[in-house]
Amino acid sequence: MISVHQLPLTPDGQTPVRAITIAGSDSGGGAGIEADLRTMALCGVHATVALTAVTVQNSLGVSSFHPVPPQTVGDQIRAVAGDIGIGAAKTGMLATADIIAAVVTACEEMGIGRDARIPLVVDPVSASMHGDKLLADEAMDTLVNRLFPIATVVTPNLDEVLLLTDISVTDEQTQRDAAVALHAMGPRFALVKGGHLRTSRQSPDVLYDGVDFLEISEPRFDTVHDHGAGDTLASAMTCALAHGFTVPDAVTFGKRWVTRCLRASYPLGAGHGPVSPLWRLGAS
Ligand SMILES: Nc1ncnc2c1ncn2[C@@H]1O[C@H](COP(=O)(O)OP(=O)(O)O)[C@@H](O)[C@H]1O
Ligand SMILES: Cc1ncc(COP(=O)(O)O)c(N)n1
Fold first, then answer.
1. 226 CA → ligand 1 middle, Å
2. 198-242 pLDDT, tens per residue?
3. Which of 36, 90, 94, 129 best tests ligand 2's pocket when mutated (most atoms within 8 Å of CB)?
4. Residue 10 lies inside a defined structural domain of this protein
5. ipTM > 0.85 for the complex
6. What is the CATH number of the domain that holds 168?
7. Which NCBIfam families does the UniProt record give (predicted)?
8. Where would you tag: which of 84, 131, 254, 280 has the fewest CB atoms within 10 A of its CB?
């Protein structure tokens, strides 16, 4: 059985496993690259970064964002993968079609993707939990046509599933239907997250590889402090993949990790607080 503590830690002075997060910054520190860096650090992984956008954000929402030039995003990936070396990669907020295209080109050059050496987790972030847009409307086609086909696993939430497939997930059958539709878009695995299925006492996520379904379910927490849950899950999965886990094992590890982080989530500001990996420091 996989425990949340299972990822091996590296002895002092030795180089840990490395991963890259290709994502936007959340000035409120709850989601985005800040959530990724916290999870990767507390999973014992050295996190590297390709910053895609700076958001002006707090617990109440995103008021604006400023994309990084696409060439600079691609160059960050090349610089890191070429020197430091990475075991897995993750994308979050990509903001524009040109940034997506630059990420795909750099990933293909550096051996990142479903048929390459380095697995790629694609979290198709389209909006914040408050409904504020984080991806240009016209970028959806580029996401599906260019990035999905090189993804090892895609991890949409139910709002993103609706945008991508037109399927409104309400139960186990429609969650499976959505996983099949997403898998047909080219990733090796599709993970349909059930975090927004608020009618259930469980929080079931469904993984599909084109043949088999795996349902990974944990108890649901009744909390509004779930900012950054999707980033935290995808980052923990990325850490497990960087350690050489299979995708189903990485999802199982990530799910337990994010569930523990939801248990430790806390209020922040006047809106939604973040899920928290700080429990790993041993305070409670
Ligand atoms: N209230 C909750 N209780 C337990 N698990 C949750 C809860 N909300 C989300 N999750 C889990 O957290 C992960 C992220 O889910 P979700 O909220 O769907 O994504 P996003 O943050 O991208 O909107 C999933 O594994 C989901 O099942
Ligand atoms: C920079 C950035 N990346 C991702 C999210 C999504 O996280 P959430 O769905 O919790 O708002 C976000 N709000 N900001």
1. 7
2. 777 889 999 999 999 999 999 999 999 999 999 999 999 999 999
3. 129
4. no
5. yes
6. 3.40.1190.20
7. HMP-P_kinase
8. 131
